[in-house]
Specification:
The protein has 260 residues and is mainly α. It is 77% helix and 0% strand. The chain is built from eleven helices and no strands. Helix 4 (42-66) runs antiparallel to helix 5 (73-94), helix 4 (42-66) packs antiparallel against helix 10 (222-240) and helix 6 (100-110) runs antiparallel to helix 7 (116-143). The mean pLDDT is 87.
């Protein structure tokens, strides 16, 4: 029942959540070699760039609250942060080309999902995500003056695509919330799965906040969106960060002697 699911979800204590978080953190390779490994992956570099992009947006947002005078140090830093934010967004958009292919290829698999509700939700999430990426490419080409502006400029087309991304993340949050409810009804102890679902729900909801602002569907504030972007980027970076290498077992001396 729903009451039982709620009770079991509440039993998943904050202390248990923290214990899993600490264990995951300790398993990470926090050396320079680990960071280099992270940066060898395109997705890893993208999420690191995204973190600094949204850090710059947060700075722009908080600076605007201070209303700096023109020519002041804070005003200059705000201008530099805005430039960094814009350039990082453009660089990330360039490297987003062809990322829609795996999403499109996975759509037929969604049609095989037995549960009709899960099937519809999965299809909506994937098709809206692919639509966002395709529209984003058109907006990018408009910014490069390769395509004509038409009714929408490059920025306007990109904002249209972000509306689809906002919808995709909203559906993603529903999908993960449904999974979390199913896990709560289960008799088995699935702490790690619950933790992952909770984190993913939070991530999707924060992305809804960000994309609603960026697409101008529902504008909030750059400071709030910047901080939310830093949080979701950090979550993505942690998933890409390599784990510590397990040391090879040391062979026993007697075993070595026998091998000789």
């Amino acid at each position: 029942s729903k009451a039982l699911a709620t009770e079991r979800l509440c039993d998943y204590s904050f202390t248990e959540f923290q214990a899993i978080q600490v264990a995951d953190f300790l398993a990470m390779d926090l050396s320079i070699e680990g960071f280099n490994t992270l940066c060898t992956k395109a997705e890893g570099r993208d999420k690191v760039a995204r973190f600094f992009q949204y850090s710059a947006r947060a700075f722009v947002g908080f600076s605007s609250l201070a209303a700096p005078k023109a020519g002041s140090t804070l005003s200059t830093l705000e201008t530099h942060s805005r430039t960094a934010m814009t350039q990082l967004a453009g660089a990330r958009r360039t490297h987003r080309w062809c990322k829609e292919f795996p999403v499109i290829q996975s759509i037929p698999k969604s049609l095989t999902i037995a549960d009709p509700i899960d099937r519809v939700l999965d299809l909506l999430q994937k098709t809206s995500l692919a639509t966002f990426m395709i529209i984003d490419h058109f907006g990018h080409m408009k910014q490069w003056k390769i395509l004509r502006g038409g009714k929408r400029s490059g920025a306007g087309t990109i904002q249209l695509g972000l509306k689809f991304f906002c919808f995709s993340n909203f559906i993603g949050a529903l999908v993960q919330a449904k999974k979390l409810l199913a896990l709560s009804l289960s008799e088995e102890n699935k702490s790690k799965e619950k933790k992952k679902c909770m984190e993913t729900v939070v991530k999707h909801l924060l992305l809804v906040l960000q994309t609603a602002h960026l697409s101008r569907l529902r504008e909030t504030h750059d400071a709030l969106v910047g901080v939310a972007g830093m949080v979701t980027s950090s979550m993505d970076v942690l998933t890409q960060w390599p784990a510590k290498k397990t040391p090879a077992p040391v062979a026993d001396a007697d075993a070595k002697a026998k091998a000789k």
